[in-house]
Fold each of these.
Amino acid sequence: MSNLSKQNSSLHQPDPGAQGIVVKKTTGFYTVVSNGQEILCTLTAQLRKRQAGGDPVCKGKRLGEHTDPLAVGDEVIFTSHLAGGGVIIDRLPRRNVLARSTPAPMPGAYTFEQVIAANLDLVVPVFAAASPEPKWNMLDRYLVTAEAAGIPAMICLTKLDLVLQADGSLQPDLAARLAAYQQIGYPVVMVSACTGAGIPGLKAVLSGKISVLVGKSGVGKSSLLNALQPGLGLRTNAVNQVTGKGKHTTTVQELYRLDFGGGVIDTPGVREFGLWNLPADDLALYFPEMRPLVGTCRFGLDCTHDEEPGCAIRKAVVAGRISPHRYQSYLHMRE
Amino acid sequence: MKHKYTHNKDFQCKHCHYLVTADTQYSGVINRNHCPYCLHSLHVDLYEAGDRLNACKAKMQPVGLTLKKLNKKYGKDQHGELMLVHQCTECGSLSINRIAADDDAEAILAVFARSSNPSPEFLTACEQDGIHLLNPEDARVVRARLFGWDDDATASG
């Protein structure tokens, strides 16, 4: 082969591209970090089309369609162009994903998968001890989703300064609810971004891991990140004085590298967290305290654990081995 | 403020299978917790009325009557309203429920008649829960609470 033909063939070979991690996602644009550099990328039409292609409809849910093909934490292959930006041409296989079902705009409407983050080491559901009041059912939904995705979870209770009693103890109701989760095996960290209480302990847990903070708007996810890494300067806001709800201050998902090792993904607050593609019959398997009892009921694996006689899970709830609140969450999720 | 009794809706009685409306216009109470026809209930509340946290879910049968004390305690002081005593058919726990406006008065009298000779174990359980079960001596009070008048008093007067 002549030198000229060699040159021509190399010109027509596709650029193999560089590998990077998506650290920020806004509508249509992805910030990818590769070799310490941030590159603003778009997505090839082929990739978007391939991700959205023709998956089956499953129980009112369209798998694959209308889903964003990339999430923060994804490892991607991209090519740079001369203008300084890049184009993502492929996504590497994911280790795991944390996904929810998009809110249905009307009853009976299709819902779609919304991937919140990918390739995670830890899911951290963040809840305020007060203002806004903790939504325990939502916490259980996060934990079930994390269990289904095979990602360890740790519960983080913020705004500790608002609920501590004069003797420095927690309110009995709150302490009992948290103790139930600790008994199951979920670590619980209580922090205050204002006073700095609990922050060193949280740093120790997050160090060296890629974690995601999820929770309602106004619970203090961004404030927590500001406390974890001073100088980050994330925009925060107080909750609405009238409604007691958050103001959706954070609007983009972004992965922040931490000075003490690892990274944390800050996510916008959500009002609801629908379970995605979790069959109701398998739901009890994602409750660690119920898992050993599945299949031991009188009706075996056919038991829905609701009103069937001889249900082992109901017996365990009555005997006090399973929290009645967790059991109610399970029943709500089945509906 | 969010209403405490969020689960209050029409239902079919698990015991007599009648359809029961939870409309307060009929029942006169905001927490319909037993069938007005057979007076049976379900063991679904755990810590407080309406929390629906109990996983027992067995039927609760009416086993007697009591009176509500003033200051929301249960006992012999015959000042308060007439209350139904329910017992869970599976775990045996007792609870006390308000009588609704459309509860069958004859069925309530039948429960009262059945409870005239309680077993010592049942009486002990009632005492442990602070429930004073009404006995045949209280028949006039029961009739007065149910009908607003007393048969005996009317006949003699």
Amino acid sequence: MKIVENIKAGDIRAVSRVIRNIEDQNPQVREVIKELYPYTGNARIVGLTGAPGAGKSTFTDSLITHYRNQGLQVGVLAVDPTSPFTGGAILGDRIRMQKHAQDSGVFIRSLASRGALGGLAEAVDDAIYALDAMGKDVILVETVGTGQSEVDIMNNSHTVVLLLTPGLGDEVQTIKAGIMEIADLFVINKADQQGSSKLYQELQKLLEMSDFAEAGWKPPIMLLENIQDSDRFFTKIGEIKEKIDEHYQVLVEKGLLERREKRKAMVKLRTCLQKVVLAPMMQELQDSGRIESMLEQLVCKDIDPYSLAEDIYAQYKD
Amino acid sequence: MYFAKELLDKCSELRKKWEDKVRSVLEKKGERKERFTTVSDKEINRLYTPEDIQDLDFERDVGFPGEFPFTRGIHPTAYRGRLWTYRMFSGMGTAEDTNNRWRMLLDQGQTGLSTAFDFPTLMGFDTDSPKALGECGRCGVAIDTLEDFEILVDKIPLGEVTTSMTINPPATVMWAMYCASAERQGVPLDKIGGTTQNDMLKEFIAQKTFMLPPDPSIKLISDTIEFGAKYAPKWNPISISGYHIREAGSTAVQELAFTLRDGIEYVEDVIKRKGMHPDEFAPRLSFFFNSHIDFFEELCKMRAARRMWAKIMRDRFNAKDERSMWMRFHTQTAGCSLTAQQPYNNVIRTATEALAAVLGGTQSLHTNSLDEVWCLPTEHSVQIALRTQQIIAEETGVANTVDPLAGSYFVEKLTNELEQEAWEYIEKIEDMGGMLSAIEQGYPQMEIADAAFNYQQQLESGERALVGVNKYVTEEKEECPILDIDEEVERNQVKRLNEVKRRRDDKAVKSSLKDLKSACEKGENVMPRCIEAVKNLVTEQEICDVYREVYGEYKDPGLF
Amino acid sequence: MSENKLRIMVAKPGLDGHDRGARVLARAFRDAGYEVVYTGCHQTPEDIVSAAIQEDVDCIGLSCLSGAHKILFPRVIEMLKENNAEDITVIGGGIIPEQDFDKLYKAGVQEVFTPGTPLEDIVSWIDNHVTPRDQELS
């Protein structure tokens, strides 16, 4: 397909167009993804997450500069929540990264969560393929920071960075929500503010409770202070970038990369099976009207849901 | 106790009877609206009585003009002694164009000057910068070098006229040019009077003309305060502003609270960074408020402001000199209250807003012109705006007596409420660690954005009326003459700038930039070096670029 | 949720930082169900066009209160053309006298909204005039 050739050649409009089709769930885009897929796998994917106000976009902005200084091509996907009431969204992450607007080596795309459970747009998956095939060396994925989406990112990223700030009041909750298993790197942003040492200690304690032998990597906690001292801030982000790169190296050296890729693939397969098998099945049941009587049967306890599912499966097998 | 107990008892008794009457009236016919609110969406009661101000303490809360806490004014004779200054904010095109407009305004009876600069000048760029494309001279005067500035103040006696300059990040540069121009006129620095707006906190909060990060921005401001205290004691080095906060959509209480809290932040910095005692510099701190369309809310806000600042300076900062406790302020009528539809209505809006400011006791006043929703004011419309002030002063009688509305149950109650609510905001900001910290967290910005959106929704739903826009709309468009700035202005200004650069002494330029950079790096007061640089025809951007290099550029947190 | 949502960019070209209107508009657009890319103030035409193409917006709303619209709005359109993106609708608002409207329309601005225009009128105009860009995948 011509558009695939254009994407591989780095054509911004082509990539943009494909991502739009992915977001709009245009069925034809599947053919594009199929053709793009063999050309993916080159990019490193870094997931950045944290509560709103943690400073992700400013962090990302600086990170982009560091990667560009290294001569790498950077793609950014920034996700913001869709309003559950109106279906619209304000995609405001870009403001903090606009200085890269004219750098042709940086492609920044804002996405609305569009109601996906947990806030991470389904489209991010396939959009990453497009950026990957386009030639990006590093893809930064920035999310809303609610509980479920963190897990989604882990499944999509090689390295997950969790940004926390003292005083947002919810640090203890996010820790309880199981973030520990997901993050490869913790960054305490605005570490010059009150409460940061308490946060650091709490994180330390929780880290000590876990066993990282199998993971082969113990997530470090890094402190980031005072954004307005730009030189110092920039240097510190550089150090964090080094850690991110180091993590990837460790994955490679310890042979853990393949395990991660397989885990990613598993989740992706599941999602695709959902789309390719389950969704059409459900659609057919609805279109044919058969779903109504099935639901009635369930409600009247004429049949239990497991048996019903087995029946439906048996029908489709033939 | 403000009133005797018998009076309050009597009032309570009569009020109950009156409320019965109200109930029966309401049963037959309701009131026009569910809620009667100010433009800040603050609910106003049907009636105010002595009971509403029973806890008022006459001496503590109201007192006399010229006496702490200055609720009724900072001077005993107020406008009977001296009228407020008619100070019309103005500037356009080239320095010559502006100089002409200024002299016309002075001829028409204006008593103080006020400078509007164009965007490149406001942001610290020269006219030939690629960022300046299309902007030269359009919303104010273009100033690149001292030569432009001298043309601007040509034939204006800087030892006799006071000049305000609305300039923020490059305030040091413009003030340096003013000082140098005065010197050329033979006027010593200790005789120059005027104001540099020079308030960066409100830029981070509302107006968004920023350049350097917060800490160096405040450092430069403290430099000007220190320099002024030593060498230019008649100059107001800062005009701590609420106007822009209000224009961005805040409520009156937010305007009051954020402005005063900004003031606190600046005072703290000068004390800490320069080791000065408040009495050494506070008398020259000045303020700048908005006068919006709700008549009583505005004048009460100003009375509350005076009372609050007096308490802040005396109790928080231990000021001993009375002048440190005076809140001296300039007012501008609300630009955001004007409409594009039926523009001649704006004359009335400006008039009532000006009246509120006068009853609020402003020291100086700018009145907007009817056409400013479309463009810079024409000569004719700016004259009407100026006459508005003059008619209020000469004909209406409101300047015959000091603080005429004092004692009104409504006015004193509303003044108290605004003060109370403003303290609550200030406390919240204290809890956040001060204004800089609050700004970093986006607190004032979000409060303002919410208030702006709320107001807009009220307009859209019709809950709030805007005459000519959602009520009493006319089909035919009403037009008014428009002032146009020619594109030639930009080309000519660039030519002039290039010519100055060709002519000037490059060695002197390089040397003064080097000295300035060194002063910045060493943490010295930049003003002397700045003055030296502008005399050598260093451009505004060249100086600002040194600041940018040493201090970095501001990263807008871009909070939504 | 797989509807085709309109993507709108709200941008302030030039040096003017007065963003009250732009921010209110962004919220109104969100409430109307659009996805709004807000680039903030102090954008050059190049910044805006580059972002608009990456973000694949259907419409750009330009806000300018400094009088520089006469130069900057046409420049944005010119650059969209240079980058094969002139199918993006451009609308404008701010402090723009009516005598400048013709020049802007001739340059390719589709509509100019004066102060006081009800938000629902702007949304209604967009609903009626802006369609998602051609997204054909050949």
